[in-house]
């Protein structure tokens, strides 16, 4: 199991007064009282015709009419049924050419997630245009002809410190990558295929674990895109280790980038998206998504889109990105490298703070920051590639086409150095000088939202690699689930570690394309965890008595329970339940007894103010094993141990009330009980610290609310 650090955090130890992106270099002292709002949710066009699905905005980049914008899009069940095509029109009724590449589907066969391409009208820099997507009659179209790239060039050249070079010309390999069932995009506006090759050891610092993964796309407007990644991630083979080389990216005979890589540690990756526009001036438009619709689709949490974000938060993002080190491969780009670190972390939640700002406002600065950190996530040493992996769909003992290291093929594997030699541990252990200390209890989700909104396949790779690591980083002795799979990330873990590990598994399972070789494993792992939790509900209910509804877990403060960790887990359960996971909804309904009850038990002797305290008592004495089982004895012991807020909020000087509110908001949406509504109403009006609108404008990461009545846009 991943070693969990005993935080021993005092009441002020987490996000106390440190609002604004501390983990990304944006910390306390950033904002002045009364700072002006710079970004609010823009107005999206509203569906108005039969078949209309959702409105989007195009923000112009100076490109001519026909410039192709590509992006990712999630759909509600039933909105884009099987056999229907996607259509697009401007708000004035003008039709736009559109292409949809389905990634996966809902149980009813309708589209869940897809890559979308739109041929946009001419838009000046910053000019906005509203677009409506709708479901139309089935149609067929031919993919872009090979003549569109016949004279184009894309190549990657790697040169070792011994001056030996290896060069891979990508365009001759593109036709094979576009064969039926392999293409990432295939239509009249865009084609995209993936090309992979091992980098010869003699040019990679004499290691055999380095590979090139390049996603090459050609658009109908003449754009050539190469998303090229050097992944030193091949695991469970001899010859792995640190690589040293120089990499050059070339497009149409021009060098698009040259990178000196002095140390490329094993189990890490880096990449860059290079774009050549041919003879076309200007850039394709940027796409702004309707976050309210994405919440309806179960893709993201339901953020309060009325709040806005303070200018200083976005301004500081620009300042950080202007630093020349931002562009250097394998740097952290302000991601917290010591993930054991607590305090004002702007990267821990259902999404990171830059991603939340991006969803809420569509601001290009937040988008660039979140995308940059998704790229930098490649430098975290949790990428373990198995060339014979991805075999779950074909049988556990059969080799697959390649996939992330999983416990169906390696049931005893543990990435901790204590795993020993294979098959218990890695063939090469993770280097001790990477600069990273990874920890499942404090891991941020850096790839899911960027993949969801951009559709960049490299970000899906990052999401899947992290999800697979979330399992194999757990001690094998606690990983078994009722189905016999070694995938349990909850048993023996910190509750926050369980929350964030299961968040990764659920996001990977929900987004995995239908033909993805990793898909079945993530679904097995997600389902196995929720089934295990639900199977333990009767036992936990008996053990916890009147307070039942708490996920058990390891925590450093003996005799105490941190309610905010239950809120972390509630956010993961709520996300899964919104997507139709019945097991997760059953777990959330069970948790409601505690999540809502802590604010409604005043008449039973437990102060509602203590429902949002940093800690409440869980045992009479720290050396006892008998848990407190009534609200009365819990309230009394909490006061005796000086954990209580009393008549004030001294023990809630952090984001604890925000965390509780987001749990209650999810309960209002998903269970709709009187208890959930009453608890949410009480806490919303109680004046708890950091629950004012100006607090959320400075730090919106948990600005999650129930769905309101009325039109969405």
UniProtKB/TrEMBL annotation:
PROSITE patterns the record matches: TAT (PS51318)
Domain PcRGLX/YetA-like N-terminal RIFT barrel: 67-124
Domain of life: Bacteria
Pfam families the record matches: PcRGLX_1st
Protein name per Swiss-Prot or TrEMBL: PcRGLX/YetA-like N-terminal RIFT barrel domain-containing protein
């Amino acid at each position: 199991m991943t070693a969990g650090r005993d935080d021993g955090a005092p009441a002020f130890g987490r996000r106390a007064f440190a609002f604004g992106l501390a983990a990304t270099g944006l910390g306390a002292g950033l904002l002045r009282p009364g700072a002006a709002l710079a970004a609010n949710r823009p107005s999206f066009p509203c569906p108005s015709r039969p078949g209309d699905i959702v409105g989007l905005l195009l923000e112009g980049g100076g490109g001519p009419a026909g410039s192709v914008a590509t992006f990712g899009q999630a759909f509600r069940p039933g909105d884009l049924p099987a056999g229907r095509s996607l259509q697009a029109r401007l708000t004035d009724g003008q039709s736009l050419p559109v292409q949809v590449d389905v990634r996966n589907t809902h149980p009813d066969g309708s589209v869940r997630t897809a890559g979308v391409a739109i041929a946009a009208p001419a838009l000046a820099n910053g000019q906005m245009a509203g677009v409506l997507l709708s479901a139309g009659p089935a149609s067929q179209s031919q993919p872009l002809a090979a003549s569109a790239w016949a004279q184009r060039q894309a190549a990657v050249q790697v040169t070792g410190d011994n001056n030996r070079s290896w060069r891979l010309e990508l365009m001759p390999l593109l036709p094979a990558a576009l064969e039926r069932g392999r293409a990432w995009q295939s239509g009249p506006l865009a084609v995209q295929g993936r090309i992979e090759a091992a980098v010869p050891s003699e040019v990679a610092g004499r290691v055999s674990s380095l590979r090139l993964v390049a996603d090459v796309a050609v658009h109908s407007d003449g754009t050539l895109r190469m998303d090229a990644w050097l992944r030193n991630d091949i695991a469970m083979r001899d010859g792995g280790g640190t690589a040293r080389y120089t990499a050059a990216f070339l497009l149409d005979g021009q060098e698009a980038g040259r990178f000196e890589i002095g140390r490329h540690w094993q189990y890490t990756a880096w990449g860059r998206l290079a774009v050549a526009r041919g003879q076309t001036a200007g850039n394709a438009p940027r796409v702004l998504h309707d976050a309210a619709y994405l919440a309806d689709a179960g893709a993201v949490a339901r953020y309060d889109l009325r709040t806005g974000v303070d200018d200083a938060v976005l301004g500081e993002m620009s300042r950080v990105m202007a630093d020349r080190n931002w562009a250097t491969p394998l740097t952290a780009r302000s991601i917290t490298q010591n993930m054991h670190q607590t305090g004002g972390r702007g990267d821990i939640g259902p999404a990171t703070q830059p991603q939340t700002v991006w969803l809420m406002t569509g601001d290009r600065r937040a988008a660039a920051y979140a995308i940059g950190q998704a790229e930098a996530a490649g430098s975290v040493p949790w990428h373990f590639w198995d060339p014979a992996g991805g075999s779950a769909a074909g049988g556990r003992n059969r080799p697959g086409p390649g996939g992330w290291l999983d416990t169906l093929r390696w049931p005893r594997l543990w990435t901790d150095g204590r795993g020993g030699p294979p098959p218990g541990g890695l063939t090469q252990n993770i280097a001790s000088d990477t600069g990273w200390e990874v920890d499942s209890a404090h891991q941020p989700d850096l790839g899911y939202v960027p993949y969801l909104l951009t559709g960049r396949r490299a970000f899906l790779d990052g999401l899947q690699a992290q999800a697979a690591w979330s399992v194999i980083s757990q001690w094998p002795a606690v990983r078994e689930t009722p189905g016999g799979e070694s995938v349990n990330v909850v048993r023996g873990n910190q509750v926050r570690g369980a929350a964030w590990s299961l968040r990764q598994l659920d996001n990977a399972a929900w987004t995995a394309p239908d033909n993805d070789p990793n898909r079945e494993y993530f679904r097995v792992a997600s389902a196995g965890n929720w089934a295990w939790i639900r199977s333990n509900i009767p036992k936990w209910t008996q053990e916890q008595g009147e307070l039942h509804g708490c996920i058990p877990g390891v925590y450093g403060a003996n005799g105490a329970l941190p309610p905010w960790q239950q809120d972390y887990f509630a956010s993961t359960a709520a996300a899964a339940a919104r997507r139709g996971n019945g097991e997760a909804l059953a777990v959330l309904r069970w948790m409601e007894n505690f999540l809502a009850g802590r604010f409604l038990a005043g008449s039973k002797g437990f102060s509602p103010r203590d429902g949002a305290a940093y800690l409440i008592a869980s045992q009479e004495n720290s050396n006892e094993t008998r848990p407190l089982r009534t609200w009365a004895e819990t309230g009394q012991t909490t006061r005796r141990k000086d954990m209580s807020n009393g008549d004030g909020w001294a023990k809630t000087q952090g984001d604890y009330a925000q965390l509780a509110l987001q749990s209650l908001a999810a309960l209002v949406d998903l269970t709709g009980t009187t208890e959930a509504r009453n608890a949410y109403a009480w806490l919303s009006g109680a004046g708890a610290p950091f629950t004012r609108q100006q607090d959320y404008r400075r730090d919106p990461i948990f600005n999650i609310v129930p769905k309101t009545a009325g039109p969405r846009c």
